[in-house]
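COMPLEX REQUEST
Ligand: flavin mononucleotide
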Amino acid sequence: MTDAGADDERRRVLYIIVCAAGPASDVGKLVTLARQRGWDVQIIATPSALDFIDAEALETQTGRPVRSQYRKPGEPRSPKADAIIVAPATYNTINKWAAGISDTYALGILAEAPGLGIPVVVLPFVNTALAGRTAFRRSVEDLRAEGIHILLAPGQFEPHPPGAGGKMASIFPWDLALFEVHKVIPGRSKQVHGQ
Ligand SMILES: Cc1cc2nc3c(=O)[nH]c(=O)nc-3n(C[C@H](O)[C@H](O)[C@H](O)COP(=O)(O)O)c2cc1C
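STATUS: Structure written out below.
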């Protein structure tokens, strides 16, 4: 078999970037859905998100270490991503990404993704006080202009009133993010990234 043939045979890799917001503790639901659809999943958590997730359980579920830092020299690379979901995506990470800041491993991956042609789907989790800020609206607009798929609209994620996040976390629409990935990826894409 040729190298190209071997590449065709491999399972597609989905990076799930988890930020520090209420629904993060349920990210295993998205892992289950993605694995059912044939994805090999790599979880990348922001440093703050580590307090929200059960990294050990996710490692068992994905069969891969949860990453939140750049690897040290000599450590194995993560598999290259075919697609990326950012969920839940915080106000902080969305604004920093749009502003070009790359001070976490998660933001480093996101910084390069548009230039590498990796499809990125973002499912935010923000309240109305944050979502209404000019900075946030500008960030969403700028990222969309770069081709990022941000599920912030009626029927997608809709910001909740401040203080209602706990209740809304349980109905966070994880499935929409995966559905969007399947809408935007052009069939079996080639490996394009990994560090
Ligand atoms: C319990 C708790 C809930 C939070 N919920 C949210 C939230 O729903 N949305 C949000 O944007 N930030 C939320 N935050 C604030 C973020 O955790 C904070 O801005 C953090 O710096 C985000 O880091 P990250 O973007 O690197 O994950 C919450 C913080 C705590 C402690």
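REMARKS: The radius of gyration is 16 Å. The first helix runs from residue 3 to 9.
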